[in-house]
Amino acid sequence: MNFSWDLLVNAFVTGVVLGGFYAAAAIGVTIEFGMLDIVNIAHPAFMIAGAYLAYLGWNSFAFDPFVAIAVFAPLGLLFGRVFYRAYHVFFERRGDESLQGLAFFFGILFIVEIGLVLIFGVDYRSISAPYLESTFGIGRISVSWRIMVPFLVGLAMLAGIQLYLSRTFTGRTILAVAQDIEAVRLIGANPVRAKEIAFGIATASAIVAGILLIIIQPVEPSIGRDYIGRTFAICVLGGMASIPGTLIASLILGVAETFTTTFFGPSWSPAVSFGLLLVTLALRPTGLFGR
Amino acid sequence: MSAAILAGASITKQFDGFAALTDVDLTVGKGERVGLIGPNGSGKSTLVNCFAGIIAADSGSIVFDGADITAAPAWLRAKHGLARTYQIPRPFHGMTVQENIQVPLRFAVGHRSARVISVEAQAILDQVGLADKASRSPKVLTQVELRKLELGRALAARPKVLIADEVMAGLSDSEVDEILALLTRLNAQGITILLIEHIMRAVMMFSQRIVVIVAGRKIADGLPDDVMRQDDVERAYLGE
Amino acid sequence: MSATFESHKSSVATPLYSGLAIVLAGATLVAVALLVGSRVSEYYYLAAYTILQFIVLGTAWNILGGYGGYVNFGAAGFFAAGCYTTVVLNKLFHLPLIVDMAAAAAAAGLMGLGTGYMTLRLRGVFFAIATLAVAIVLQTVISNWSFVGGGRGVYVVRPEISGLFGTYAHFLVMLMIGLATCAVFAAWAVEKSWIGVGLAAIRDNETAAETCGVPSLRLKLIAATTSGALMGMAGAPFPYYVSYVDPATAFSLAIAVNSIAMPLVGGTTAWWGPLVGAIMLGSVQQILTVTVSSAANLFIVGVLLVVFLTVAPRGVVGIVRAWKRGSQ
Question: What is the total count of domains within chain B?
């Protein structure tokens, strides 16, 4: 274990920047699980699918990552809406969410990961763009644009979603459904449509997060599994339905993981998020900002 | 009033800053018929949940049949004879109506023999008027039948006290009379009943004493006619 | 008024025939295996071992998942706990496999109890995520533990055995037949007992169950511990079966998905559901192993799971019961 002040500060800054990206990955889970009570553990699979879409776009059409976002995020929105409709018909209407529904998402997670292995193999895939190769200096710390771009885009996406939910009618309906779905029905609004749109937004955010992921690092299909722990740990620690909570929890996780990797080695890193989740569930299940 | 069988003292419960119940005292005497009324959102269901052990009050105590049950889990309270029905019926969908009744017979009462359980379940179904639906699924029951199933399950636990939480809500006049007759019969058998209701004629007919809760606080507790004449009770129901 | 019991679920007052049938079937299978001996190629024994292992895993998973409604995403973790208990005990002493299995049951059972105690008072989904967490944390710990070979894995030497069983593979298969019989019998016993009734009530509506006097936490912990212990026992012989164990094999995806897919495809509301599911999906995978890649194999299992969930959510058990109702 090599201690030095520079190492510490570097790890902290990297952790914060990484945390910003983690927030982008987790916001979808906050919406789906925290707000709508849909336990979509396949969310990381959608994210990885997004990463591979970015790869396809870059490889076949020389898509810049921002172009990929502009093209694939709307597709994600549409797909999410259709997917939720199917889930609603086959599981929510039958009252089967807690067992069959949960197993369903597990099956989807599985199919997407193995499907990606069958199509792309287990080799790492990456993309590049000229502006990603340089670094960005803050005093003595240098941070690569490869993680700075996802940090900034991630924050922007979070802000955008927060604005949408608090300022638009549909957004506020979604928040109302999160609080009390029966009340929403009683006032004559359609909670299912609100949930459908919310799920679409969450899926789009997963696609974007996937594109950001492949900017940060090369990807291969099984990486999604690491993000199950991260996204759900962040959602729970952040208090379930709180967007600011998601951000704070993401930063905490990012720093905790980076410190662990820096001082104890990368092989312990998958355990950090799950360990944090278990501790939160054991000690304070309502999270930092939750009810 | 005879000796208290259920006594809640200074019950307070907050949800995330919202005061659902503040310092509520509610006592029910053995064999009594007590009505609990109050506007929507006044805290009645929260109070029932505190009595039943579904949620834990922030402060206050609950004494049942001489024992302090404030910290006791819900299932233990059921075993000792504190039964409740749910406002929105919660049948066990994967079982038949009779099997639903068998659950409290097996757990709250503690019967071991399948034959005894079966016989007693049938008797209870007869009592609540569901005998012909014994082997059907709860999914095919009408609203009033679902309410009877709730009462049947509560009855199967051999309760000393039965808390009926809005068991008549949304029923027609004749259905309300049916349930009311059933509850009166049960009370005549010695079961203490705490009736939470919005249907005023039912509450007035049934209760020996009425308690009124508004905005989490008890504002009245006495004979039905006296309570309904109180100014603040009139205001709570009819507005300023 | 008499109660004609055309229940759409098995009646509570079932004769003991099923339990006896299970034990007899198990004994018969062992006898058959002994008689057949080496006349059948080793391949069939290995295939049988895998399917029997899945019968145990699926049945064990279902005790908490199907009966109680609490999903376990980390079956691979419990299986691997049993696996590595054997590895550790084998390195320290040289104990008979039965002792390894007992130790594995204890270790994995404790894991189930601990995970359950932490999360079974919260909503079901938190238990599910916690089981996944426990599996991954365990995998990380074992991958970093050099005593059991860390990420590189470890070799385990099969002991010599006497002539009664023929080869060691035969012995393992017969052991697994015994374990599968025990697991299925245990599931049947739980389902028909007061524990099963309580779990069914908890699954349908936990709050109402509590109000009926069902001690839900206690029953869930019993189910979680039993389920975990059985899954650990399924893992205990695995090191001897494969001879080389590493975290990737012990914590494999195949274990994780099959433990969930088999009960759900077979049907979660009866003791014979996971059995049917394991035989169905296990056979499909064994047949496909020689024709497609292992990834494609697992892909098909995943697809079958999703298809059954959308089209036949009650599994084969549901289909059989609906057909019986229809023909009455």
Answer: 1
Please state, as a whole number, how many other Cβ atoms lie within 10 Å of the Cβ of residue B194.
Answer: 24
Distance between CA atoms of residues B29 and B220, nearest Å: 17
Q: Which residues contact C20 (CB under 8 A, 6 or more apart)?
A: none
Helix, strand or coil, per DSSP, at residue A142: strand
Average pLDDT, rounded, for chain C = 88
* pLDDT, tens digit, 9 for 90 and up, residues A47-93: 999 999 999 999 999 999 999 999 999 999 999 999 999 999 999 99
CB atoms within 10 A of CB C289: 13
Minimal Cα–Cα distance from C182 to chain B, Å?
A: 25
Tokens 């601990």 belong to: C114
Chain A nearest C-alpha distance from B9 (Å):
26
Q: Where residue A289 falls among pLDDT bands split at 50, 70, 90?
A: low
pLDDT, chain B, mean = 91
| CB distance B173 to B142 below 8 Å | no
- Asked if the structure places residue B115 within a domain, the reply is no
Task: Say which residues have a Cβ less than 8 Å from residue B44's Cβ, sequence separation at least 6.
Answer: B36, B37, B38, B165, B196, B213
Burial C179-188 (b: 16+ CB within 10 A, else e): bbbbbbbbbb
Are B89 and B167 within 8 A, CB to CB? no
Contact A95 B16 (CB under 8 A): no
Chains in contact with A via at least 3 Cβ–Cβ pairs below 8 Å = B, C
Please state the rounded mean pLDDT for residues C186-195: 94
The residue range of the domain holding B9 is: 4-89+159-238
A95 and B CB contact within 8 Å? yes
Looking at domain A5-122+130-283, which CATH architecture does it have? Answer: Orthogonal Bundle (1.10)
Residue B192's domain is classified under what CATH number? Answer: 3.40.50.300
Q: What is the pLDDT of residue C3?
A: 34
What is the predicted pLDDT for the residue at C160? Answer: 73
Residues sharing a CB contact under 8 Å with residue B142, sequence separation 6 or more, in sequence order: none
Inter-chain residue contact C203 with B135, CB threshold 8 Å: no
Tell me which DSSP letter residue A81 carries.
Answer: H
Half-sphere exposure of B110 (CA within 13 A, CB side): 6
Q: What is the mean pLDDT of residues C119-128?
A: 84
Paired strand residues for B149: none
Cβ-contact C301, A107 below 8 angstroms: no
- CA distance to partner chain A, nearest, from residue C296 (Å): 7
* Residue C44: count of CB within 10 angstroms of its CB: 13
DSSP states along A8-47: HHHHHHHHHHHHHHHHHHHHHHIIIIIIT----TTHHHHH
Calpha distance A205→B163 (Å, rounded): 48
- The proportion of chain B whose per-residue pLDDT surpasses 70, expressed as a percent, equals 98
| pLDDT band, very low/low/confident/very high, at B198 (cuts 50, 70, 90) | confident
Asked whether the predicted pLDDT for residue C244 surpasses 80, the reply is yes
Q: Please, which residues have CB within 8 angstroms of residue C290's CB and are 6 or more apart in sequence? A: none
C24-63 tens-digit pLDDT: 888 888 888 877 777 778 788 888 999 999 999 999 999 9
Which residue has 């296990």 as its token pair? C282
Q: What is the mean pLDDT of residues B11-30?
A: 90
Chain A residues touching residue B15 (CB < 8 angstroms):
291
What residue spans define the domains of chain A? 5-122+130-283
Assign domain C18-326 one CATH number from 1.10.3470, 3.30.1340, 1.20.120, 1.10.150. Answer: 1.10.3470
Q: Does B106 touch chain C (CB under 8 A)?
A: yes
Contact flag C210-B91 (C-beta cutoff 8 Å): no
pLDDT for the residue numbered C8: 38
**Best to test chain C binding among A274, A277, A286 (most C CBs inside 10 Å):** A274
The yes-or-no verdict on residue C80 having pLDDT over 80 is yes
